Amino acid sequence: MTCKALGEIQATSRGKEVTIKARVARLWDSVLISNGELVSLDMILIDQEGTMMHGVISKAYAAKFKPLILEGNVYTITNIQDKEDIPKHGFNFSSIEVLSTRVGVNIYLLDVIGIAAYIGPIEESKTSFGTSKIVIFYFGSSIDQQVKVRLWGAKSEIIDARSTGDVIIITSTTVKKYGRYSLSSNSATQVYINLPIPETMDVQNSICSQENNTKEFHIEEGHLKGTMEEQMSYNRKTLQELNDVIFNSSNQGRIFTVEAVIDEVNTRYS
Question: Pairing mode, if any, of strands 236-237 and 257-258?
Fold first, then answer.
């Protein structure tokens, strides 16, 4: 039986049964963040031509197929092979311009790459998300574009301060904007450090070429000192005051706290 390329499936074979050969570039359990319930077994497939596709195995069949699927292997309908001519990784890196169109739109997950400028300590959180960690990095190949990423749960343990200065790839993030862009991990997120792909070298070379113009980045750590109650009052602002100062470039990298009443919680995306 002839195997179809993923691009052919997308173009002409929707709803039809076809045979494919592709590598499982990423594999993860898709779960509800609120309670950890399994929704599906998800994967990113990549074929010989470099075309990527999101694959889903429903909850009813996840337990049956998960032991048979390994991240990095190449699959056909009947057997498992490892062909070096099929790329091992596939990403769709987002630009700052793309981030601006995806703010608060959680149905789109974004892959990003950049140099880690700051990696914070693990923070305890009294939410269903558990622990988290802040990573601030130079977005893409520009030292003038800094993006904050919050890694939740087990994802927060993948990197630490020793990875500062490394090229970090963080996949499948959602984006919000609080003065500057803020990305957040989820169950589909993968984190890669200095992955040997051309994009990593491109970022490293571009940052090095700008090093004579590098701006020193200061992160305030005073909020990490003292008791939890003291940390909650660090640089306390009202919402109105926060709106007045957050877009001022001189406040970039500063941390403020706000006391407010949560009027509504949007649980549409669990």
Answer: parallel
CA torsion sign for 185, 187, 189, 193 is positive
Pairing of strands 191-193, 236-237: unpaired
109 and 188 Cβ atoms separated by less than 8 Å: yes
Amino acid present at 8:
E
pLDDT, tens digit (0-9, with 9 covering 90-100), for 183-217 = 888 888 999 999 988 888 888 877 666 554 544 44
Instruction: Say whether 185 sits in a helix, a strand or coil.
Output: coil
Burial class (CB in 10 A: 0-12, 13-18, 19+), 25: buried
- The strand pairing partners of 22, in sequence order, are 75
Of 10, 46, 11, nearest to 25 (Cα)? 46
| Cβ neighbour number for residue 201 with a 10 Å cutoff | 12
Residue for token pair 């700051």: 118
- CA 127 – CA 150 distance, rounded (Å): 14
The residue count for the chain: 270
pLDDT digits (tens, 9 = 90+) for 243-264: 666 555 556 556 778 888 887 7
